[in-house]
């Protein structure tokens, strides 16, 4: 039993006061031990689940913010006392993991006559609970969901400062959980690396480590996400510190390492689950690649090559995403430039490429999500190249995947 205070709650405190056994987890409200009748006229206990969305410190009432009047049910389908199904509840019968640790069997849809929307979760829960347990009481008069057992269990251990209501609304909590790696590194917080961080901070990775020895200066503000203040630019603080502070507002696990990786400290990447390599120097790439391959750590390398064409004074070029895993990395030599040269000079100096930075990062993060099993991958793509002048995306895949 927990005595944790409850507020604000959209009817949760009323449920607790009434003796319902309730639990809040992963933006969902669970009502345990609801008695119901099975098809063979036994009285069993099921769990009712519904969305419990928070926004700005308040809980949204049902029928707002993507919530509906429906609920999920974990257990056999409830029946009348004679064993016939309660057809007035019927909506969907699909067993699925709603979020990690919560598997449901059915979805119900029912509202009282003349009611368009439930004003709070108390009214919603008690409506369904009364319908279902009334039949159980015909067989067992003392059957009740009001057990008085309190299990409010939102433990505050999430990596997010505030809840991921987007995944809850879309009912993809289980899919999103596949992204919950232990430690991911971003090496290089330039234009592309900063946009990689912007996306990773919205995923349930436990720790996101940032490595870069540069300062955050005025030109960086024009090719990174968000809008830096003049005071933040004048502070000339390390890039990793600037971005750590920015994204700590959303994600608890962002870690700052305000220095470059070299032969003396490359071992700091030991134990990482995945690494994004966002550097523009061939020698640095070699060092990082060799270490990650030796450690069996999968990684993605990104790169851009933009050129100014005269006399049109237009830019053309491409951005690249290359993934390497312990099983597949023999393509790195042909896909990734390993020698230092002046091909990236324009990219490093020109500030008007934020869109290409962002696209490069988005492609990299999408490929990582495929690697994690979040997105379906019909092909095992190991290299992607987007050409801005052709507006085309070319991909290279392993031969095994292309054969019938």
From TrEMBL:
NCBIfam families: PRK06153.1-3, PRK06153.1-4. The keyword Metal-binding does not apply. GO terms for molecular function: nucleotidyltransferase activity. Residues 177-305 form the THIF-type NAD/FAD binding fold domain. Pfam families: DUF6791 (PF20590), ThiF (PF00899). It comes from Paraburkholderia azotifigens. The keyword Transferase applies. Gene3D superfamilies: NAD(P)-binding Rossmann-like Domain. This is ThiF family adenylyltransferase. InterPro entries: DUF6791, ThiF_NAD_FAD-bd, Ubiquitin-activating_enz. Keywords: Nucleotidyltransferase, Transferase. Residues 11-165 form the DUF6791 domain.
